[in-house]
Amino acid sequence: MGEQIKYARLRRKLSMELVAERAGISRATLWAIERGTPSVSIGMYAAVLHALNNMDEDLLLVAKDDALGRKLQDLGLKTKQRAPKKNLK
Question: Which regions span the lipid bilayer (predicted)?
Fold first, then answer.
């Protein structure tokens, strides 16, 4: 993910200093994000994506259509079973 953020910054021809300033983080933190350092919080990633011309809107799409999650949820739902119909003779 960090590499993709770096490429997005470079494609926009934005300097590390400018993106870090827009995101309200240090240049060292941006460097850590672009290297994919796992200790950086997701909030910092979101701030950088926002600084890259509102790319953080894509974060709202995460797990929006969770097909597997819905199937697992449906398997856990209890359904009432009907009594068998009585034969009226």
Answer: none
